[in-house]
Every structure is written in C-alpha cells, then in structure tokens.
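Hey, quick one: can you model this chain's 3D structure?
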Amino acid sequence: MAIVVYAPALALSQVTGMNVYFAIVAIFIVCIFYTALGGMKAVMWTDTFQVIIMFGSMLIVIIKGAIDLGGPSVVWETAVNGSRIEFFNADLDPRVRHTIWSLVIGGYFTWITVYGTNQAQVQRYMTVPTVEQAKKAIWINAFGLFGILTICCYGGLVIFAKYHSCDPLATNRIKTSDQLFPLFVMDTLGEIPGLPGLFVAGIFSAALSTVSSGLNSLAAICLEDFVKGIFYDKLSDEKATSISKFLAVGFGVISFLLVFVAEQLGGVLQAALSIFGMIGGPILGVFTLGLFFPWGNSKGAFVGTLTSFVFMFWLGFGTNIEIAKGNLVIPKLPVSVDGCPQANLTIQSFPKQGESGGVLEFYRVSYMWYSMIGCTVTILVGLFVSFLTKFQDPRELDPNLISPPIDRLVRFLFPEFRHKILWDLGRKVCLVYITSQKKENQTRTECIVCFALKFFRCETPKKR
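Sure thing. Here's the predicted structure for all 464 residues.
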C-alpha cells in the first residue's frame, strides 16, 4: 500500500509542484476517512467510480500523445527502431529480467497469488451472494485487467516515442523514471485546462482503490483472527464495528510510515511486484500445500511458511541493498540526447554490470520469479518437516479438503501406485462409518455407504 501511494504522490508533485510528502498525507487522510466510516460497502462503490476515471484518464492521455506524434504507426516504428519491442526472448537464464518464461511462468504465480490468496480479493468475492456471481466477477475483472495493462504498455511506447531523442532522465529534467509519465502529461496536455487534473484523478483513483481495500481487509483479518479469536470471542456488532474502524486507522498510519521505506526501493513497478513475490509467494505455497498435498501437517505448514518468508525477505532486501551500494546494477536500454535543444549535453553514464560472483549472482534473479520461488520453498520445506513430524495420513483426511481435480487426476494416472503413497482419501473415515452402522441396521448401513461414496469419494467395499 505504501508503494501505490508513493507513485501518485510523485505524479501530483510533478503536475502541481506540491511537496511529495504533503501529497502522501492528503491521500492517506482521504482514504482512511472513507474506509473507516463506510467499510467494505464504501470500498466497493468507490472502486466502481475510480476504475471509470482511471480508464478514461489513461485513454485520453495516450490517444492525445499518439496523435501529436503522428499516429500509432509512428509510435510503433520508433519503438522498433529503438529496440523497445521484444516479444520472444526465450533465454532460460533466470537472471534475465524479462523473458517469455519469466512473464508466463513467473507471472502466472504472481497473478495466482493476487487473485487466489490475497485477502483483499477474496473479501471482494465474498460480497456477492453466490459462487457463480463471484466467477463472473473474476472474468469481468480479467478483461478489465487485460485492458488496463494493454493501455499502460502502449502508454510506455508513446512516452518513448516522445522522448527517444532527448531522454529527460539523462538531461536531469526529472529525478527518477517514475516521473516520466507525469512529465509526459504536462508536456502533452499542460496547455489544455483541466486535463492534467484528470490524469492526476486517474492515478489517485488507482491508489485509493488499492489502499482502501487493503485497509479494510487488514482490519477484518485482525478483528476476526486476533480480537475475536484470542481476546474477545463474543463481541456485539456495535463494538466490532468500532474496533474495526480503529484498526483501519491504525493500519493506515503504519502504511503511511512505510512510504519512507518504499521511496528507497527504486522503480515503483519492480518494487510492487517484488513485494508481491516476497509476501505472496509463501502464502500461495501454504495454500498449495494444503490443497494439493494430503500428507502436510500443521507443523510443516508453519515451518515451511516461516522459512519461505525469511528466505524471500533475505533475497528481496539483499538485492535492494546491493543495488543501493552499486554492487548490483539493473541493465538499462540505451538512450539518446541527440535531439535535445541544449548544446553540449552528455548522457549520464550508468555502469553496465556492477560486481559479479558469489551471492550477487543469486541476487540477480529476476523479480518476476519471486512468487514461484517463495511458493516452492514453502511446499518443499513444509513436506520435509511434515514427514519428520508424523505426516498427515491421507486415509484419515476429509477428501473435501483436497482439490477434487487433483484427486481425480491422481486416481486416473496412478490407479495402483496411489495405494503405496496412501492416496485413499477418507478411506478410514468411510470404513468407520460403515462398520459402526452394520451392527444396528442393514438398511441404515446402505444409506451410510451411499453417503460415504458421495461425500468422501470412497471406493465401493468389495464383497467377501
């Protein structure tokens, strides 16, 4: 949340000249206010209006920019000539930042984390009355996500076409690459009253949407799992609402303080996706361990998740520390200042490689792989600890706790081998029901067997 607030604060500062920290304070005050008072209902309604503003402002900016440059064909040709179009980089080296493998495989784990295990998303699903409506909402969101990502990518091409011969960062017009888009807006729309403000409104809409849902989710989790689960198991609705509001305000203040950390993490996009991987990867791993591996127990899940968190934080923060020291350099594509009107300009020199060898080579792993690495570490350590500490017997497990497609796949692919790995989900449970009822009534026994076959996916008992 701190990162998504820092980005629009930079934009507002670039457009209006307002101090960055004052803009951050303004964003958090507004967001905390309506989240604490309105709860999830306020979050959902504001999200609806904010997404309309976000799409509208982005479209106006990039369409106007492309027209001024001569149309989409000029934008595309400039990007191709500047080596900004790269579709099929199939390099298997995980240290290469963006390849087809890191985007497809690493991106898959990242988005599964966001849409499958993120409390802010799951809480949105729970606001609709049926599972079918939740599925429809996810599909609608998928098309919307594809649209906004396409707009953002094309916006990047338009910005490059605008400044391909006079890079603003190299000429010190801006201090960070995150200020490129606000600068582009002012250069393109600055003379049209109101349009720069529309752009700022669109950026703010994205930030407010993310922060409000995050604050609401954190407050809900803390209330249910800690306040009610540990301290007060019986709370009236009035007290629960009051506590939830105080929690939302408290988490908002914490997020505000974390902004001072976020501004040290480099580019906003990489920082956001890195943190998604560092935190979301281990969480995805523990969900995967529980859904797909019936041998995992509570000790394995806890140790696996904790180990993965420690490992991923070491990887993520270690990488940023080495970047700050200058030992690790993120490769950049070449830029030019040949078209700048000022005379005697020189391009700011960037080291191409930095130090090499040792642990630095591990720090070079692309941030796109973070979610997969975190998930894998959780599963491997979780299974290892589970087998060391008396693993869960799958035959004593309720089969409804394991993913049904995975259960059917294992039964289909390994009809004989599955017995050796105890993949007879719920078998002992079924036998207990059947045996306990046989002594009383034969008719009742048949009903219990049918119940077991339907809900526990047991095999039909063989006649002796």
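One thing worth noting: The radius of gyration is 27 Å.
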